[in-house]
Design brief:
The complex is a heterodimer of chains A (222) and B (459). Chain A has 2 domains: 2-121, Rossmann fold (3-Layer(aba) Sandwich); 125-218, Arc Repressor Mutant, subunit A (Orthogonal Bundle). Chain A is 44% helix and 23% strand. Chain A has helices spanning 10-22, 33-42, 59-68, 84-93, 105-122, 152-163, 171-179, 187-201, and strands at 2-6, 26-30, 47-51, 75-79, 97-100, 126-129, 132-135, 140-143, 146-148, 168-170, 206-210, 214-218. With 459 residues, chain B is α+β, with helices and mostly antiparallel strands. Helix content of chain B is 50%, strand content 20%. The chains are: A alpha/beta (222), B alpha+beta (459).
Amino acid sequence: MRILVVEDNDLVADALTLGLGAAGFAVDRAASAEAAHNAFATEHFDLLVVDVGLPGADGLSLVRRLRASGATQPVLILTARDTLAIKVEALNLGADDFLLKPFEQDELIARCRALIRRANLYAGEQVNLGRLRLDVAGRVLRIDELPVELTGREWLVLECLVLNSGRVVSKERLQQAITGFDQALTPNAVEVYVSRVRAKVGDAAVIRTVRGLGYRLDEPRN
Amino acid sequence: MSRETESAPSIQRRLLWFLLPPLAALMLAGVYANYRAATAFVESAYDERLGDAAIALAGSVLADGPRLRVDTSMVPATAHRADHLVALRYAIVSSGGELLAGSREVPAAAASISANPTFADVLVSGEHLRVASYRISIDNAQAVISVAESAAQRAVPGRFILTSTWLMDFIQLDVTLLIVWLGVHFGLKPLLSLRRQIEAGSPRELKHLDATTVPAEVKPLVDALNVLFDVLAEAARSQRRFVADTAHQLRTPITGLLGNLELLMKEPAATALAPRLQALHTGMEHLARSANQLLALARADPSTSFTEQFDAVDLKALAGRIVEGNLTRALNAGLDLGVEAAPVAVRGNVRLLEDLLGNLVDNAIHYTPSCGHVTVRASLREGRPCLEVEDDGPGIPEEQRGRVRERFYRVPGTSGNGCGLGLAIVSEIAEAHGAQFTLESGAQRKGTRARVLFRSAAV
């Protein structure tokens, strides 16, 4: 997986390049929107990490330009300014996620992985999350290369949680994800499916219950 | 009203001071002049009557040889009459000193032969008398006719006049003073409403005063105040911009430092330095938190446009967002962070309310020890929307609960890296939303329950 980091501050760019590199990504760096655009035109990247405050054309204009040229790769926006206007504009322009400075390396890596996973999931490709490997097209879950049998609804629950790993998924959303299957389900039934998935995944991923909100799937901490 | 405003010079009091005493003195002088004019007129009327009586008496004096005598049958009835106002006494004395008629007690005024009677005030056995004397000469014999009237009796109508003028003038005076007072009071009304306008505005808002409704006399003052407000507001704005810019500028280097530090901590060679690197990391996080709080404080200022951009804000969704945003930190701290929310909406600024709830949750996570619980609630309390953050941490001592809302105040002896801005931000944002912010003990008198009670739900 190859990531293009567009950041003009050397200290931040170094940390991003080294951190993402240590997490197993191939990382290229551009210090301006112009350089990023040139790099993007000649090379393939799976993900862009773009700082808003760039010298010259800013990060948002870069996203606009890339989307206008038909690029579909996920874009993670970094910004020091947490105004709602920037957030809304970034998401409207086609950015996929938004991270406010300062952030922890682990948070950035988790977001990058989630974005790439989501892109792969939509593309029907193989998705990796720690020791889990989801073969989206064949609907097969493997843990440490060993296949685990899931029912249709269990698969949908796991897929929804993996798609949103690191984020809280509400009970209602899980309910919607699995009711398309046949008739309506009670929220209690959702709990049953989540606990079944939790049992099948074991310690390969953590599925937390967040009181009053829903569930969150994380990679286990090492 | 404070003592200060009472001792301060008051235009109303000055106007009344300058108007009322001279007016009162003028009215008193008027009473006196009226009295004098009226009594002088009455006096001359009485004198004329007294003189007429003397002249009328002269008709009863007849020549009797070389002597004179008085034909009593010809004494006019008026001389005998004693009505309730005037009793007249008379004496007709010949030039030889012989009393021809009347009473000897009546003294004569020095009267010469002339067309008119002469008048005098005399004191006879303790009684003040007004005497009119008229000298007649018949066949070389002369007589003096004196008619007297008691001054005390005369004073009766004088007193009556005085009383009635006093009464009339007093009523007039009172009405005048009342009119002056009312005039001053209502004339100064625009000043009072200006004062109310100034008092109504928050001292930090620095809003323009409405110069269109103020009187022309104070308009220059109001205009000058508005200019001053502009200058102050601009100074406050640039200070806030500076704080916000600085906080923003800090974020990028902090990101770089934090990222590099985290990478460094993962190096195998760093194991020996782990405690020191961890301390550095904690300090860096503290720095990041402070920068965020400074920004939130700059945003919460009443003069920012945030306090004017109010929309319906769903508290349940807000609670969900804030809890999700703080979940990783809570999990890392070994805390159970959760939500209990009902669908409630208020009118407010979503960015500020995020700061408000974010700071309450941040505080709870910060001060609650591992294995504790933090719960965010959104509910309706007696019809009023309510946000609560409850933890089962050490709690805030009751006597400290007021002070913790002050900027940069920290409860003595607390650990952690708070800079003491969190609750000041919460206070300010609650105030901007007209909401009540209270701190109390949590369930079973343990921990802290921070509550923000809004005025009314948004429709």
